Fold this sequence. Notes:
A: 0% helix; B: four-stranded antiparallel beta sheet
Amino acid sequence: EAQVTQNPRYLITVTGKKLTVTCSQNMNHEYMSWYRQDPGLGLRQIYYSMNVEVTDKGDVPEGYKVSRKEKRNFPLILESPSPNQTSLYFCASSLGTSGYSTDTQYFGPGTRLTVL
Amino acid sequence: AQSVTQPDIHITVSEGASLELRCNYSYGATPYLFWYVQSPGQGLQLLLKYFSGDTLVQGIKGFEAEFKRSQSSFNLRKPSVHWSDAAEYFCAVGENSGNTPLVFGKGTRLSVIA
């Protein structure tokens, strides 16, 4: 089944404790991205990647890191989480061949992160 | 840069009633427009999209949307709402150059009452 998977789905952590949220897609998509969703703010893009070893900042990259060593995986890393990073996080992927903002994006189920 | 406005934060409709969710965009050229739906506890799923051609676009689950260039709008409609349509709906716009990220609106939450 074609899908985007994220792990963990739920995470409660404490300020400063490094964490990684994994994202994997099995559709051979070139383009992957991370969003955070906050009430009243909608979805805001954190980082995106157009292909392996190519990443770029989105609208709210501060406090996050990403890497794209393999086409299928795009982990989101919080080196020193803070309470303002408490949010619902979505990973998404798309073909990327006809344009990164014109292809249909496929979303993972989300990761709800709480930073105490 | 493009932007999207969804004027309604929350809408409540009765089951069986018609629905229209508003979306206004700002973009100089012809936009690529999308509607996504997020059911409770789930990720976003594409409902429909518009690139060119017929301005009335049909999507999944009985939804349709109409592109009106003169009004910079791409409103989502459904003639008869079902309780399972309760969800959050996001309008999004992309550039036809295709190399900049999609921009999402802030969403409209739809509640359906019996």
